[in-house]
Amino acid sequence: MLSGLPLPLLAGLMAAGLLLDALLGEPRRWHPLAGFGNCASSLERVLNRGGLRRLRGVLGWALLVVPPVALAAWICSTADLWLAAAVHALLLYFSIGLRSLRDHVLPIAAALATGRLDDARGLTARIVSRDTGTASADDLARAAVESTLENGNDAVFGTLFWFAVAGGPGALLFRLANTLDAMWGYRNARFLQYGWAAARIDDLLNLAPARLTALTYLLLGDPRRGWRCWRTQAAAWPSPNAGPVMAAGAGSLGVALGGAAQYEGRVEQRPPLGGGAPASAPDIARAWRLVAHGALLWLALTVLAAIIFERTLHA
């Protein structure tokens, strides 16, 4: 493996990282990604001024991402096997967000199901950048399903992909780059130039994971409809990677997404995704299960590959 880990060990460490995430979830205090985000905000306020904004954005990205990833790679490559294995598993645990995704989206479904619209608006505002203050129940359900499908790639499958490629340091690299894209990758006056590098690097790192995520959604839902939506709708979506993920996911679930959304007081009309009835509260849980079952599928395939590899090696 490119990670340098034997395939059986990689499968075991992937299982360990997923198990830690399932049991512990995000650390409630002193979360490394929260500290990283605070550092990124502080550095952006210093660097994002004056001329050469793109170059400053490249510098900011490098200062934030290269040192921790290089340190993680050095520890994993120089420590003894058991310590290195523990570091790989912990890095995957800190980088993946499967349980966090569940803990953020399922309460929205519960609030909508019980008619607590104000609670649902507040909960949805935590996971999307659109305005939710006057959003209807249908608007909130649509936003939550879209966020679940997109973050299935960003918080789960992309992390697993880069863990398979480069172990714990690969998972860390992907998650830090994705975090900076989420913070800096806006096409507005403040970030259009400074966030250019963060957005492009995230696009590059997501090229393969996004399409594997879309394929996963197809396999676990309605593959024919999902493929049709991927083929006909993805190109119209602004993001080259979110388009395939969300179109395939919406088609596989058989729900209609996209359409009008309000950002900073203005209504933005986005291309349609999927097909069928508009998303509703129960579809949030269906989208979550699609992501969760996909993670289990990836783990099962990795374990199966490890078994086949071992049997072939000792045949």
UniProtKB/TrEMBL annotation:
Function: Converts cobyric acid to cobinamide by the addition of aminopropanol on the F carboxylic group.
Protein's membrane topology: Multi-pass membrane protein
Name of the encoding gene: cobD_2
Keyword Amino-acid biosynthesis listed: no
Family, as annotated: Belongs to the CobD/CbiB family.
Transmembrane segments: 58-75, 81-98, 290-309
Compartments where found: Cell membrane
Name of this chain's protein: Cobalamin biosynthesis protein CobD
Keywords: Cell membrane, Cobalamin biosynthesis, Membrane, Transmembrane, Transmembrane helix
Pathway: Cofactor biosynthesis; adenosylcobalamin biosynthesis
A Pfam family hit: CobD_Cbib
Top-level taxon: Bacteria
InterPro entries attached to this UniProt entry: Cobalamin_biosynth_CobD/CbiB
